[in-house]
Design a protein that fits this description.
3 helices; alpha+beta; two-stranded antiparallel ribbon; about 30% helix; 2 strands; elongated; single chain; about 110 residues
């Protein structure tokens, strides 16, 4: 079937020919398991760097520890959690908060 007036029915709008009202499902009661989405979405960014699933929380904790400031220049703009020992260690002790400018300088990226 094609989309359009006589095509597929919208999943949330009632069918014009239907006399029964559409069922109202509370969030999370229907559809595929949420892990399908998180495994698919999280897998691409996580597996490319071999980061553990809770890495976003660890990075946030490192930024909180450093007072949401770059540890080198004190900037509060465009912060990133830098791995001091490379991506082999994901311990919070091995992370430091750097602004984008200092992070790029640390990795030798050309400044724009």
């Amino acid at each position: 079937m094609q989309k359009g007036r006589n095509g597929l029915q919208h999943p949330y709008l009632p069918d014009e020919n239907s006399e029964t009202p559409p069922m109202d499902y509370p969030m999370g009661e229907t559809g595929p398991d949420e892990s399908i989405y998180t495994a698919t979405i999280g897998a691409t960014s996580r597996n490319s760097r071999n980061e553990p699933l809770e890495m976003a929380e660890v990075k946030l904790r490192a930024k909180m520890r450093d007072g949401y400031k770059c540890v080198r220049c004190g900037s509060t703009e465009k912060l990133a959690a830098h791995h001091r020992k490379g991506t082999k260690s994901h311990r919070i002790e091995d992370l430091e908060t750097l602004c984008q400018k200092c992070h790029h300088a640390e990795h030798g990226y050309r400044q724009t």
